[in-house]
Design brief:
Layout (H helix, E strand, L loop, with lengths): L1 H6 L12 H10 L5 E5 L7 H11 L4 E6 L6 H8 L3 E4 L4 H13 L2
Parallel strand pairs: 1-2, 2-3
Helix pairs in contact: 2-3
Length: 107
């Protein structure tokens, strides 16, 4: 819910999914999506694999991985999977906004 509130500052349409497969499908069906906040731990298909599949048909969308783990090497693993950036939970509102602004400026 916090992420939805934060995201209202960036756009008027927020699409939510529960599984990695849904994330891939919604990205495929909505090629104009600008930003994905990809939870790494999702049922059916984890965020790393969902990101890899999305990158097969969309190289431009910004993908920021979010995970509760925050272990050493997680950021690198997310970047290697195709994510643009990484944030660990609990999500700090200002840190997330800063990551989004940084990545949107790089487009």
């Amino acid at each position: 819910m916090l992420v939805s509130i934060i995201m209202k500052d960036f756009g008027n349409q927020i699409l939510k999914v529960s599984t990695g497969s849904e994330a891939v499908a919604i990205c495929h069906d909505n090629p104009d999506i600008d930003l994905i906040l990809m939870d790494i731990q999702m049922p059916n298909l984890n965020g790393y694999e969902a990101t890899r599949q999305i990158r097969q048909f969309n190289k431009k969308v910004i993908i920021i991985a979010q995970t509760a783990y925050g272990l050493s090497g997680d950021r690198e693993k997310a970047i290697e999977a195709g994510c643009n950036d990484y944030i660990s939970k609990p999500i700090n509102k200002n840190e997330l906004k800063s990551l989004i602004y940084k990545n949107l400026r790089q487009e």
